[in-house]
Amino acid sequence: MERTLLRTGIAGSGYAAKFHYDALLRVFSVKLDISGAYSPTMGKLEQFTGPRNMKAYKSLEDLINDVDVVHVCTPPSTHEQL
């Protein structure tokens, strides 16, 4: 049986984003494409995406438009707005 492709992205670039990225690499029930990440802090975003060879999205809207699932890895006070 062929696994379904699921495009995923990460909103955030700190500890939680790193934790989710590592966890996503261990998912085997579906085929994942970790499309990239978004963060309003460009320096932290580049530090997160660069070593992982991920796309650094300049806007949250662009990330949302490119993926099926967004992992919200930002401080809890920002979750509802995102």
Written overview of the protein:
The protein is of the alpha/beta class and 82 residues long. The protein has a 4-stranded parallel sheet with strand order 3-2-1-4. The protein contains 3 helices and 4 strands. The chain is 30% helix and 27% strand. The mean pLDDT is 93. Strand 1 (5-11), helix 1 (15-24) and strand 2 (31-38) form a beta-alpha-beta unit.
Radius of gyration: 12 Å
The global form is globular
Mean pLDDT: 93
Low-confidence stretches: none
- Side-by-side strand order of the widest sheet: 3-2-1-4
- Quote the distance from N terminus to C terminus: 35 Å
What is the SS-derived class? alpha/beta
Largest sheet: 4 strands, parallel
Total strand count, please?
A: 4
If helices are DSSP runs of H or I spanning 4 or more residues, what is the number of helices?
3
Reading the helices and strands in chain order gives EHEHEHE
Approximate strand percentage: 25-35%
Share of helix among residues? Answer: 25-40%
Give a concise summary.
It contains three helices and four strands; from the N terminus they run E-H-E-H-E-H-E. By secondary structure, the chain is an alpha/beta fold.
Keywords:
single chain; 82 residues; alpha/beta; 3 helices; 4 strands; globular; 4-stranded parallel sheet
Topology record:
Layout: E1 5-11, H1 15-24, E2 31-38, H2 42-49, E3 55-57, H3 60-66, E4 69-72
Parallel strand pairs: 1-2, 1-4, 2-3
